[in-house]
Amino acid sequence: LRVRRHAAVLASVLGISLGLSALSGCRNGLPGGRGGDPARVSDALPSAPLQPGNNFIVNAVAKVGPAVVRIDTVRRVINPLGGLFGSGPSIQQQQGQGSGFITRSDGVILTNAHVVEGASDVDVTLPDGRSYSGKVLGSDAVTDVAVVKVAASGLPVAPLGDSSKVRPGEWAIAIGNPLGLDNTVTAGIISAVQRT
Fold it and tell me: Taking a C-beta distance cutoff of 8 angstroms, is the pair 120, 135 a contact?
């Protein structure tokens, strides 16, 4: 499979270079052309290269990323077969992970309700490595939102926006900790609003 993939890439590169060298041998450049630089493939004006640090996604991650936290949970569940026939303890622990973001510098965090549902232990870790024990203040399964509180002060905060001003076509940036991988970033666009 690897050999086929390498062969396909090599064939593509050879095809492109043969095509460009064939075009460069043409007296009039591209077919239907009127002369000019035969090696020039596009008439578009060259665009300015991106300057390091001027990318809006990079800027958003630098601004909000420090307030995005990893949430580790432990649920204690009863094993109905526990103790029978030596099949293990009657109470077992299930571990879970999720993401959240700090909304107040005194340790108020928003996350998904399914992340902390039934959790007996909640630990919150910031991207800088600081870790706190958290307490679930409340949750709503219908909207899948929960509030967690940690005992801290001076924490970085993610500012909240106004969802009523969001328009289709605007950029959306997601920062999270899937599978414990800290500050993973992805981007897309808002495809529609007011859909349930």
Answer: no
**Lookup result for tokens 């949430």:** 71
Q: Which amino acid would we find at residue 146?
A: A
The phi, psi pair for 13, rounded to 5°, reads -65, -45
Separation of alpha carbons 40 and 29, rounded Å: 9
Per DSSP, the three-state class of 114 is helix
CA distance 138 to 81: 32
Contact, 64 vs 100, CB < 8 A? no
Instruction: Determine whether 97 is exposed, middle or buried from the number of CB atoms within 10 Å of its CB (0-12, 13-18, 19+).
Output: middle
183, 61 Cβ separation under 8 angstroms: yes
User: Looking at the DSSP assignment, which residues form a beta bridge with residue 101?
Assistant: 68, 110
Give residue-wise pLDDT tens across range 74-115. Answer: 988 877 766 666 666 677 788 899 999 999 999 999 999 999
Half-sphere exposure (CA, 13 Å, Cβ side) for 122? 25
Which of 98, 97, 112, 102 minimizes the C-alpha distance to 150? 102
Query: Considering only CA atoms, which of 76, 127, 125, 73 is closest in space to residue 97?
Result: 73
Summarised one tens digit per residue, pLDDT across range 14-41 is: 344 434 444 444 444 455 555 566 666 6
Rounded CA gap, 29 and 79, in Å? Answer: 76
